[in-house]
């Protein structure tokens, strides 16, 4: 009880310090979730997706707002987690290196010079945001795209240059390149792009990086690359191997189903690792997470199975949308964006009232919904609610 009171006091103080929004957690988050979601859905830049995730209500029938993978983690990862508990009084000194080695071996890079691990890719995105905003530099991104890095960069004095997507909702690489100038700090490429789930042609992206990385650093966020048929064929890690000024970010949070376990990494040049190490390091990774990641990494059968289940839920979602007379943006990831026929705040309120969590966006002046792919029962819960209000 006294813990609860202390916690409340802490939440209250933190909330006052943070303008009442950013650091709410636990019980208070559930009370506060509705206005926060509304604020986000109105497209204000105040809250990043990361903040949203911290504050979204947990007790939903269908949690389709966070691009998580409900089919993970794999049984092997869970077993490794359990087995690591006994030894977790020890600091994970060596094991973090073992994991970096395993990843480096697979990718054909050096574990010491090219791989930097962290508790999810977010700390690495944040490190890049801090460094590349120094001196009021410009950060170029697609619009809309994943906004955690540029939002943080703006807080560190960067100017955020937003480049609209193409007519088919893809990153407009030509327009992004045209914005590069001597004051550009970073170009952020999210591929597949969140929230549109579109991909850019990999040959075109490779050529883009070859040119642009001579002028500035290119950050390629490949959080959703495992949802593509052949990730190894389309990753930009080859650009790192070719010595280019590029950072490739990966996470275990998506197809591996590790969002709550927290494990991510970047593959980049040694000098960039040296620089970003000032802002982030791998010591945030817990021993159980490392053990689970060691067991799960490139576990082909599990990954294929999770992908198959995702595809089945996605096909069902497509059929529901079609039946209700809605169009959608064909998706290359575990979420789908589609244009709404009503005000997005009203849509969002009505869905949450029915226990279905989704996100909405304003895109080209129109209201859109982004729905994450969940288990079939979650997709059915979405379908039930959607039919009532669409
Ligand atoms: C494009 C993109 N990058 C990075 C992240 C953050 O992932 P992590 O859980 O590894 O911090 C997300 C989370 O949704 C994302 O969508």
Short note summarizing the structure:
This protein is α/β, with parallel strands linked by helices and 390 residues long. It is built from 16 helices and 12 strands.
Give the key terms.
390 residues; alpha/beta; Aspartate Aminotransferase, domain 1; Aspartate Aminotransferase, domain 2; three-stranded antiparallel β-sheet; globular; disordered N terminus; binds pyridoxal-5'-phosphate
Topology of helices and strands:
Layout: H1 2-17, H2 26-41, H3 49-55, E1 62-63, H4 75-84, H5 95-107, E2 115-118, H6 122-132, E3 138-143, H7 148-155, E4 159-164, H8 173-178, E5 184-190, H9 202-212, E6 217-221, H10 231-234, H11 237-241, E7 246-251, E8 264-267, H12 270-276, H13 287-296, H14 300-323, E9 335-339, H15 344-353, E10 356-357, E11 359-363, E12 366-372, H16 376-389
Parallel strand pairs: 1-10, 3-4, 3-5, 5-6, 6-7
Antiparallel strand pairs: 2-8, 7-8, 9-12, 11-12
Helix pairs in contact: 2-15, 4-13, 5-13, 6-7, 14-16
Residues 49, 67, 120-122, 146, 190, 194, 221, 223, 251, 253, 259, 264 line the site of pyridoxal-5'-phosphate.
How is this structure best described in words?
There is one protein chain. The chain has two domains: 2-71 and 301-389, Aspartate Aminotransferase, domain 1 (Alpha-Beta Complex); 75-296, Aspartate Aminotransferase, domain 2 (3-Layer(aba) Sandwich). It has helices at residues 2-17, 26-41, 49-55, 75-84, 95-107, 122-132, 148-155, 173-178, 202-212, 231-234, 237-241, 270-276, 287-296, 300-323, 344-353, 376-389; strands spanning 62-63, 115-118, 138-143, 159-164, 184-190, 217-221, 246-251, 264-267, 335-339, 356-357, 359-363, 366-372. By secondary structure, the protein is α/β, with parallel strands linked by helices. The protein contains 16 helices and twelve strands. The model is unreliable at 1-35 (pLDDT under 50). 44% of the residues lie in helices and 15% in strands. Pyridoxal-5'-phosphate (PLP) is lined by residues 49, 67, 120-122, 146, 190, 194, 221, 223, 251, 253, 259, 264.
